[in-house]
Design brief:
Radius of gyration: 16 Å
Distance between the termini: 31 Å
Number of domains: 1
Strand order of the largest sheet: 1-7-2-3-4-5-6
Largest sheet: 7 strands, mixed
Order of helices and strands: EHHEEEEEHE
């Protein structure tokens, strides 16, 4: 396994080849409530984004799962991220989206997020509208004919606790 002081990308060991088993291990580190939200948000995103690639980053601060048309992180359009107390939906292009309900939070130059109060938040018409806008702004459109695939991009060797202090 290639390693450095920050992350390693699993490459050739059979015990880490099944991404679903690996992701379930990442999610299991969270409380039951956050883990359930992550699982449901992931199901929602997979159904809503046919043709997307699912890119998984088990980072120091959060478990981040991005969705985009390629394996390049710069092409990610949406991501969900699990923190010890909540799950957020991130939308690339957030600063330029029309958000009359003021749902988008953050000050980043490219990305804004919505804290998901529950998995049902993803079905809110205002959230759906923001997702449609973000998808329309993407540099590369999703190709629904492309097979859905999950790629574990990185696993941080050091991580903050996934449970509240």
């Amino acid at each position: 396994m290639m390693a450095n002081s920050r992350t390693y990308a699993p490459r050739c060991y059979p015990e880490v080849m099944d991404p679903e088993i690996q992701i379930e291990g990442f999610i299991a580190k969270f409380t039951d409530e956050v883990a359930d939200q992550l699982r449901r948000a992931r199901i929602h995103m997979r159904q809503r984004l046919p043709g997307a690639l699912e890119l998984v980053y088990d980072n120091y601060n959060a478990l981040a799962i991005g969705y985009g048309p390629t394996e390049r992180s710069k092409d990610i359009v949406f991501s969900i991220a699990g923190y010890p107390r909540w799950v957020s939906l991130f939308l690339v292009g957030g600063p330029w989206l029309s958000d009359p309900k003021g749902l988008l939070k953050g000050e980043g130059g490219r990305v804004r997020h919505i804290v998901l109060k529950s998995p049902a938040t993803l079905n809110d018409p205002a959230v759906e509208d923001l997702m449609i806008q973000a998808a329309a702004r993407a540099s590369f459109p999703l190709n629904p004919a492309q097979s859905f695939r999950t790629v574990i991009k990185s696993i941080s060797a050091k991580q903050r606790s996934r449970r509240p202090a």
